[in-house]
Amino acid sequence: MSRRGTAEKRTAKSDPIFRNRLVNMVVNRIMKDEKKSLAYQILYRAVKKIQQKTETNPLLVLRQAIRRVTPNIGNRI
């Protein structure tokens, strides 16, 4: 039996501009060599281009893209 207390679960923080956890999770995946500000710049530029081309909410497009890429476990044979 452990004498230590149980660790508290931490939730992912949201990004400063969109206040969205998904954006922060994507930035953490993009991040290389602990350069988070560069990862934010890359993502914000991409979001800006999505906004200009589609003229819709770029977060919805990002969410749809991630859903399409993730594997669908429910339909396994």
From TrEMBL:
Matches recorded under Pfam families: Ribosomal_S7 (PF00177)
Domain Small ribosomal subunit protein uS7: 2-73
Keywords for the protein's UniProt record, in alphabetical order: Ribonucleoprotein, Ribosomal protein
GO CC terms, sorted: ribonucleoprotein complex; ribosome
SUPFAM superfamilies: Ribosomal protein S7
Stored InterPro entries: Ribosomal_uS7, Ribosomal_uS7_dom, Ribosomal_uS7_dom_sf
Membership in a protein family: Belongs to the universal ribosomal protein uS7 family.
Protein source organism: Aegilops tauschii subsp. strangulata
Protein name as catalogued: Small ribosomal subunit protein uS7 domain-containing protein
Top-level taxon of origin: Eukaryota
Single biological process term from Gene Ontology: translation
